[in-house]
Design goal:
CATH class: Alpha Beta
Order of helices and strands: HHEEEEH
Number of strands: 4
Radius of gyration: 24 Å
CATH architecture: 2-Layer Sandwich
Number of helices: 3
Largest sheet: 4 strands, antiparallel
Number of domains: 1
CATH topology: Glycoprotein, Type 4 Pilin
Strand content: 15-25%
Structural class: alpha+beta
Strand order of the largest sheet: 1-2-3-4
Distance between the termini: 71 Å
Shape: rod-shaped
Length: 139
């Protein structure tokens, strides 16, 4: 009668550990990108709220100079509280800039600009900055 084998051999255990190690090595960078994109989505939502206010203002005024500050828009800009980004509007151009706080792999240098351009009396928006170069938003 043959003895019954119980447990794993050292070779089987080493193979299992190395496979798990390779999977973790490949998965961690993708997970970190996923976390950063999720954090940047919060920033984009704040920018979108200000963008909608500029669009509404421009629809009535048809002049970006009348829609280039929070006072003229009649809104309060989302401030940099906790881990949230600070949102600003540039005078004269109505460019919306988000400067994030260091959080979940995002640094303050990873700012994002949302620029309006007038094209046939309509606003066309484009993103620029680290948010585009790092692939967190599509330009």
């Amino acid at each position: 009668m043959k003895p019954i084998q119980k447990g794993l051999t050292l070779l089987e255990l080493m193979a299992t550990v190395s496979i798990v190690g390779i999977l973790v090595f490949l998965a961690v960078p993708h997970y970190q990108d996923y976390i950063r994109k999720g954090a940047y989505n919060e920033i984009m939502l704040s920018m979108e709220a200000v963008q909608k206010a500029v669009i509404a203002c421009y629809g009535g005024a048809t002049d970006l100079n009348r829609c280039d500050s929070a006072e003229k828009l009649g809104i309060q800009l989302p401030g940099a509280m906790g881990d949230k980004a600070g949102i600003e509007i540039s005078a004269g151009t109505a460019v919306i800039t988000a400067t994030p706080k260091a959080n979940r792999g995002i640094e303050p240098a990873d700012s994002c600009m949302l620029t309006p351009t007038v094209n046939n009396q309509a606003l066309v928006w484009s993103f620029s900055g680290a948010c585009v170069s790092k692939g967190w938003v599509k330009s």
